[in-house]
Amino acid sequence: MHNRRVASVERVETRFRPDTGLKWIGGFFAYGLGMSVLYASTGVGLPCPFRMITGWNCPLCGGTRMGDALLHLEVGAAFAYNPAALVGLAVLATLAMLWTVQLAGGPAVRLPKLVRDRLAAVRPTTWLAAGVIGMVGYTILRNL
Asked: 12-60, pLDDT tens digit by residue?
């Protein structure tokens, strides 16, 4: 069984393509930029169904206003609207920069093999559960 996990870890490593990652990040940033420009120019944003029902901010609430603040280079205001999303954007921007350097012929930056192996050994359902628990915890903390 241990050999199966090692084999699957090696398959994951060979399947990663930075150009595919950049396409996804580019699409995400293009959508966010479009929504932020729409909000900045018209004041129209997407209503949050969770907030309409509960009155609480969801983990993504404030994202459009955060994008508007970033368009105006107001990083402090962007952080106030949604700190977790702003940190997430910084992480995605860093990944995009590293993958662009790799595609341009630079070095491939990867986590150490020991860390990659341990992360790959975690089941997808465990990652999903951790993500849900983190989002629920963040929702509760930001609404206290």
From this structure: 455 678 888 899 999 999 999 999 999 989 988 888 899 999 999 999 8
Q: Which residues contact 44 (CB under 8 A, 6 or more apart)?
A: 38
Alpha-carbon span 77 to 62, nearest angstrom: 10
The C-alpha atoms of residue 79 and residue 135 are separated, in whole angstroms, by 17
On the CB side of 73, how many CA atoms lie within 13 Å of its CA? 0
Q: How many CA atoms lie within 13 A of 54 on its CB side?
A: 11
Please tell me the predicted confidence (pLDDT) of residue 47.
87
Look up tokens 């983190």; give the residue: 134
Question: Is residue 112 classed as helix, strand or coil in its secondary structure?
Answer: coil
- For 27-51, letters b (16+ CB in 10 Å) and e give eeeeebeebbebbbeeeebeebeee
pLDDT the model gives residue 90:
94
- Domain boundary assignment for the chain: 2-143
